[in-house]
Amino acid sequence: MTADEIKNIIAANLKCEHIELTGDGHHWYTTIVSPEFEGLRAIKRHQRVYATLGEKIHNNEVHALSIKAFTPAEWAASPQ
């Protein structure tokens, strides 16, 4: 899968104010800002992102995904 394909899948299933994705085709690194993360702990945020990819994760089309998940307020307060 390409970075654009993965970004499009995530964005289609999760309201994202910001999404970055880099990687080598096997290992991916993403930063996502979403109001849907409000009130969720880190593990629940990650599960929410993994859920958007569904079978792509289970059938190993997306092998490894490192996630940084922020609410809009957290993102605004963080040094980028």
Rg for CA atoms: 12 Å
Question: Helix count, per DSSP?
Answer: 4
Major sheet details? 3 strands, mixed
User: What is the number of E strands?
Assistant: 3
First-to-last CA distance: 27 Å
- Helical fraction equals 40-55%
- Averaged pLDDT, please? 94
| Low confidence ranges | none
Q: Spell the H/E element sequence.
A: HEEHHEH
Structural class designation: alpha+beta
How are the strands ordered across the major sheet? 1-2-3
- Strand residue percentage: 25-35%
Shape: globular
Précis, in short:
Helix content is 41%, strand content 25%. The protein contains four helices and three strands, in the order αββααβα. Strands 1-2-3 form a three-stranded mixed beta sheet.
What does this structure look like?
The mean pLDDT is about 95. The longest helix is centred in the middle third of the chain and has 12 residues, at about 40-55. The chain has helices at about 5-15, 40-55, 55-60, 70-75, and strands at about 20-25, 25-35, 65-70. The protein is built from four helices and three strands; from the N terminus they run αββααβα. It has a three-stranded mixed sheet with strand order 1-2-3. It is an alpha+beta fold. The chain is about 40% helix and about 25% strand.
